[in-house]
Amino acid sequence: MINSKIFAKNIASYFLNVFIFILLINLQTTIWFHFFNYLSPPYFWMPFFVYMIMYRSISVATLWFLTAYFILMSFTMALPGVFFVTLALTFAFIIFMQKRFSMLSLADFVLITGLCCLLFPICYFVISAMTPYFTSFSVLDFFLSFALTLPITPILLVLLKRINALINGNNLKELQIGL
Amino acid sequence: MPFLKIDFLKFIYASCLIAFFIIIYTLQSSQESPSLVVAPHSVNHFFQRYYYMFADSVSSTTRQYLQLLTLKKELREVQVENQKLKAKLQVLKELKLENQRLEELLEYKSEVPSFHFIVAKVTARDLMSDHFSLFINKGSEEGITKLAGVISPKGVVGYVTDVKAHSARILFLTDRLSSIDATVQRTRARGIISGYAWDATKLKYIERPEDMQEGDLVITSSDQKTFPPGYPIGTIVAVNTKPSGVGHQAHVEPAADLKKLEEVIILKAKK
User: Fold this and answer.
1) Among positive and negative, which fits the CA dihedral A125, A127, A130, A135?
2) Interface pTM, i.e. ipTM
């Protein structure tokens, strides 16, 4: 009985987070686009991605990596292979950082999200260069997206922590986040 | 005699006082202001003047304040009215622009009878900034099919790559994954247009360099079903005469202003 309750809560938490993830991506592709046209948007989805990997067990984090990949792919024309490898490298980087450092404070979270925002486009550029359809690299877009993502990261961390606490209660890692 | 017993001194004082009042009365009734009354009058005038000034300034200030209050109220009303009028003007401007765009569409529609036109609004852009694709608010329920051509009144925009019930994705001709059959209008040389940057495409696989030159108009080819034949794609801005792979290349600037698209036209071939 207890197990089924926990299972139901986990499922509800998963779908709620999927919903939040889609909202964040839409914020980037629709809302930002309508207000700022083609000005480089911040990576609204990146703090969520980092959160779901940093503060979850490795199996749940892997599930979130795959979920994020399939959701993100529906919003872009990027080559699936290139995008998968890029996201996998970002995922591996977060796991690497998580294993070696106690990333539990707000500053640590902002730092690791910022690093991911720098790593992701670089990996994407390098990997796409190995295909016939290699991408161009815009330094302005690169720094603008990075700079715009940093201020929204703490806000999203607070929101994600509170929302997750509401539905399923924060896990031990989440409870230790120093805000 | 007690009758004559008068205090002489008191009598003199009383007489002097009466005389003084008589003199004053007499002098006041005359036209001239003698020196005797100048002094109190001056003092009085001084106070009157400054009292008047004070009272006048107070009353005028009060009056001005009251007027200001009224003016402020009126100003607020005028400002509200102004805002409403501005908003109305903005709506009218938008309507005028929309009207112009729709007029252009109708003009073009009458020229190209072999296609149905579906006008859709742009809703979102691609997640990755290096890919040039957009989402529109119409899908298969509205008759949009995969690989349907997308145009604007100025030129070719791209084609549909993904269709959902009420939305679809358009791949711009400037995206590096896009390929469109094209013809140089002047020489009828054929090639493939594919993208590489926001405002630039490449015309590839042209056999002879003399088949293209700067300023040539590139149009859609005649033997395809995606686009109407002869519709403008762009203008050649630079020619690369060195053969790359098979044939020569030219840089083509798209005719459509892809960064300012609000509505697009999706072509549906008539059966």
Assistant:
1) negative
2) 0.85
Dist CA B25 CA B257 (whole Å): 100
HSE-CB at B150 with a 13 A cutoff on CA atoms is: 33
Predicted TM-score (pTM) of this structure: 0.70
Cβ atoms of B167 and B137 within 8 Å: the answer is yes
Query: Which residue(s) pair with B269 in the sheet?
Result: B115
- Subunit contact B259:A37, Cβ cutoff 8 A: yes
Residue among A37, A77, A135 whose CB faces B126 most closely: A77
DSSP 3-state assignment of B185? coil
Cβ contact (<8 Å) for A136 and B196? yes
Mark residue B188 as left, alpha or beta (left: phi above 0; alpha: psi -120 to 50; beta: remaining): left
- Cβ B128–A78 below 8 Å, yes or no? yes
Concatenating the DSSP letter of every residue in A68-79 gives: HHHHHHTT--S-
Residues of chain B in contact with residue A27, where contact means CB-CB under 8 angstroms, are none
Nearest to A29 among B125, B130, B197 (CB): B125
Tens digits of residue pLDDT in B125-156: 898 888 889 999 889 998 899 999 999 888 99
Residues contacting A96, CB < 8 A, separation 6+? none
